């Protein structure tokens, strides 16, 4: 099994990882293992072709529908008293 040595890691990053590890009942090293394993399994490049195919199919299905610009929807929502500062 390989070992990785990460040098010059900001103290704030280490502290945040420790805080993240605690509720998961993991050590700092265990949390770093978990984060790296998750990152390695979440291969966005591999997902891109399927995403593009799905978005192209959706675009084709909705081609003739009237589209409302996002800024209009946001303005309507804000005018109704909803806020986005959550």
Could you walk me through the main structural features you see in this protein, from its secondary elements to its overall organization?
The structure is a single chain. By secondary structure, this protein is mainly alpha-helical. It has a domain at 11-62. Helix content is 62%, strand content 0%. It contains 4 helices and no strands. It has helices at 11-21, 28-41, 44-61, 70-79. α1 (11-21) packs across α2 (28-41). The longest helix has 18 residues, at 44-61. It is flat and about 55 Å long.
The best one-word shape is flat
Beta-strand percentage? under 5%
Structural class: mainly alpha
Question: Any low-confidence stretches, pLDDT <50, length ≥5?
Answer: none
Order of helices and strands: HHHH
- Our count of helices gives 4
Question: Helix fraction?
Answer: 55-70%
Rg result: 22 Å
Residue-averaged pLDDT, rounded? 90
- How many extended strands? 0
Q: How would you characterize the largest beta sheet?
A: none
End-to-end C-alpha gap: 43 Å
